[in-house]
Amino acid sequence: MLDTIERPGSFKSSVQGALWKINPQELSIALAKLRRAQGERNKFLHSSVIRDEETGEYFIMQSSARGRVNIATDPVSIENLRATVLLIHDAQQSLSKAIYGDEVPPPLKEKA
Predict the structure, then answer these.
(1) Cα(72)–Cα(33) distance, integer angstroms
(2) SS3 46
(3) What is the CATH number of domain 19-100?
(4) Residue 108: pLDDT above 70?
(5) φ and ψ at 72, to 5 degrees?
(6) What is the pLDDT of residue 22?
(7) Which in 12, 37, 62, 79 has the greatest CB count within 10 A?
Protein backbone atom coordinates (compact mmCIF):
# COMPACT_ATOMS: atom_id res chain seq x y z
CA MET A 1 0.00 0.00 0.00
CA LEU A 2 2.75 2.46 0.88
CA ASP A 3 4.84 1.64 -2.16
CA THR A 4 2.44 3.48 -4.48
CA ILE A 5 2.59 7.26 -4.37
CA GLU A 6 -0.25 9.11 -6.08
CA ARG A 7 1.29 12.57 -6.37
CA PRO A 8 3.79 14.72 -4.44
CA GLY A 9 2.23 16.23 -1.34
CA SER A 10 -0.47 13.56 -1.11
CA PHE A 11 -1.21 11.76 2.13
CA LYS A 12 0.46 8.55 0.91
CA SER A 13 3.55 10.52 -0.04
CA SER A 14 3.71 12.10 3.44
CA VAL A 15 3.29 8.79 5.22
CA GLN A 16 5.90 7.02 3.14
CA GLY A 17 8.38 9.85 3.66
CA ALA A 18 7.69 9.76 7.40
CA LEU A 19 8.38 6.04 7.60
CA TRP A 20 12.01 6.68 6.67
CA LYS A 21 12.39 9.16 9.54
CA ILE A 22 11.15 6.93 12.37
CA ASN A 23 13.50 6.85 15.34
CA PRO A 24 13.03 3.35 16.88
CA GLN A 25 14.05 4.46 20.38
CA GLU A 26 11.70 7.45 20.36
CA LEU A 27 8.93 5.27 18.91
CA SER A 28 9.34 2.77 21.75
CA ILE A 29 9.10 5.57 24.33
CA ALA A 30 6.08 7.07 22.54
CA LEU A 31 4.26 3.73 22.48
CA ALA A 32 4.84 3.26 26.23
CA LYS A 33 3.40 6.75 26.81
CA LEU A 34 0.43 5.93 24.58
CA ARG A 35 -0.34 2.75 26.56
CA ARG A 36 -0.27 4.70 29.84
CA ALA A 37 -2.40 7.51 28.36
CA GLN A 38 -4.89 4.98 27.02
CA GLY A 39 -5.28 3.47 30.49
CA GLU A 40 -5.92 6.87 32.05
CA ARG A 41 -8.31 7.82 29.25
CA ASN A 42 -10.25 4.59 29.67
CA LYS A 43 -10.52 5.20 33.41
CA PHE A 44 -12.52 8.37 32.70
CA LEU A 45 -14.50 7.11 29.72
CA HIS A 46 -15.49 3.64 30.89
CA SER A 47 -16.17 4.29 34.57
CA SER A 48 -19.00 5.94 36.43
CA VAL A 49 -18.44 9.25 38.19
CA ILE A 50 -20.37 9.45 41.44
CA ARG A 51 -20.79 12.26 43.95
CA ASP A 52 -20.75 11.81 47.71
CA GLU A 53 -23.81 13.76 48.82
CA GLU A 54 -22.40 14.38 52.29
CA THR A 55 -18.96 15.71 51.34
CA GLY A 56 -19.59 16.91 47.78
CA GLU A 57 -16.51 14.98 46.58
CA TYR A 58 -16.50 13.12 43.28
CA PHE A 59 -15.30 9.56 42.80
CA ILE A 60 -14.68 7.29 39.85
CA MET A 61 -16.27 3.90 40.34
CA GLN A 62 -14.42 1.21 38.42
CA SER A 63 -15.61 -2.35 38.14
CA SER A 64 -14.36 -5.51 36.51
CA ALA A 65 -15.73 -9.01 36.32
CA ARG A 66 -12.95 -11.38 35.33
CA GLY A 67 -13.61 -14.44 37.43
CA ARG A 68 -15.14 -12.33 40.20
CA VAL A 69 -16.63 -8.89 40.54
CA ASN A 70 -14.31 -6.13 41.75
CA ILE A 71 -15.54 -2.62 42.48
CA ALA A 72 -13.24 0.23 43.47
CA THR A 73 -13.82 3.92 44.03
CA ASP A 74 -11.10 6.54 43.70
CA PRO A 75 -11.42 10.27 44.38
CA VAL A 76 -11.30 12.38 41.24
CA SER A 77 -10.92 16.10 40.60
CA ILE A 78 -10.54 18.57 37.77
CA GLU A 79 -6.78 18.39 38.41
CA ASN A 80 -6.90 14.62 37.75
CA LEU A 81 -8.77 15.19 34.50
CA ARG A 82 -6.34 17.95 33.48
CA ALA A 83 -3.36 15.68 34.22
CA THR A 84 -4.92 13.00 32.01
CA VAL A 85 -5.45 15.48 29.16
CA LEU A 86 -1.80 16.56 29.42
CA LEU A 87 -0.66 12.91 29.54
CA ILE A 88 -2.61 12.15 26.36
CA HIS A 89 -1.19 15.23 24.65
CA ASP A 90 2.35 14.32 25.69
CA ALA A 91 1.88 10.82 24.24
CA GLN A 92 0.55 12.25 20.97
CA GLN A 93 3.41 14.73 20.82
CA SER A 94 5.97 11.97 21.43
CA LEU A 95 4.48 9.84 18.68
CA SER A 96 4.46 12.77 16.26
CA LYS A 97 8.07 13.56 17.11
CA ALA A 98 9.13 9.91 16.69
CA ILE A 99 7.50 9.69 13.27
CA TYR A 100 7.81 13.16 11.79
CA GLY A 101 10.50 14.78 13.93
CA ASP A 102 8.06 17.60 14.68
CA GLU A 103 6.50 18.81 17.88
CA VAL A 104 2.98 20.17 18.23
CA PRO A 105 1.97 23.10 20.44
CA PRO A 106 0.72 22.41 24.00
CA PRO A 107 -3.04 21.89 24.41
CA LEU A 108 -3.48 24.07 27.49
CA LYS A 109 -1.75 27.17 28.70
CA GLU A 110 -0.22 26.90 32.14
CA LYS A 111 -1.75 29.05 34.83
CA ALA A 112 0.05 32.34 35.35
Answers:
(1) 24
(2) coil
(3) 3.10.450
(4) no
(5) -135, 145
(6) 74
(7) 37
